[in-house]
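Much of our argument rests on the idea that a fold can be written as discrete symbols. Part of our work consisted of pairing the sequence of a single chain with a tokenised description of its backbone. The amino acid sequence and the backbone structure tokens for this protein are reproduced below.
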Amino acid sequence: MKTGSFSQPLLLNFLQPREMLISIQLVPFDSTRKLLLSRDITQLERVQTVHRDFVANVSHELRTPLTVVGGFLETLMDMPQVDESTLRQFLPMMMEQSRRMQSLVEDLLTLSKLENSPKAVASEKVNMQEMLDTLMVEAEGLSQGRHQIRLEKLSAQWLWGSSQELHSAFGNLVSNAVRYTPEGGTVTISWQEEGDKLRFSVSDTGIGIPREHIPRLTERFYRVDRGRSRGNGGTGLGLAIVKHVVARHNARLDIKSEPDKGSTFSVIFQNERKAEPDTVAADD
């Protein structure tokens, strides 16, 4: 400003009474006067920061599997002859990394769809008995007999909402419980009424989460233990998807966890989401 050049705005960062970023700029008003413009760009800067972090995180998550697959392909191309034992060693690892990239892309597309969908959720009756049965099958398939999978159905109520979105959210909670529970542990899927509310919860006897990490669990790509999360096949986007689905259904996500003892993730629905089961389905 001392040089008389006012082409670029001056940014001022305030910490009190709250954190703010203010842009100040002088623009010519007439031959003798200048106009002082000030703007609060705090929210804009936050959005840009989130965008930069998101791009950096996606690039980082894709780099490792791409490097692994590319390295294997380069090795195979340099070999004059590829024997069957080498292929049996390399191909499963390449397939594993390819599936990891596929899961990441699918989660990114799901998250993008949720963020860009209208705020109003298409209301349909969600058959919770069918939903719970499907989640049990998926949990047992992922566990492959390594865990005890239990179902506690204490309510016959259905839900008003999006069956596809709710399955995505519930499925993420169930798969996380299975992935982070050591062999021999127990995963419990529960559906129950609490007063005028409904609660879907997934409890496990897994590794648990330190208290200081819980507030940040639903952030994109946030991991308590990065190495362990990737090793278990997580993309780092599952709980971000859960957060969006829960918000779209005017519900609340409750997380309780204790290291080495396990965790319980609950989605609590308001009374307005209750739906009476269809008569035919209820009789079946």
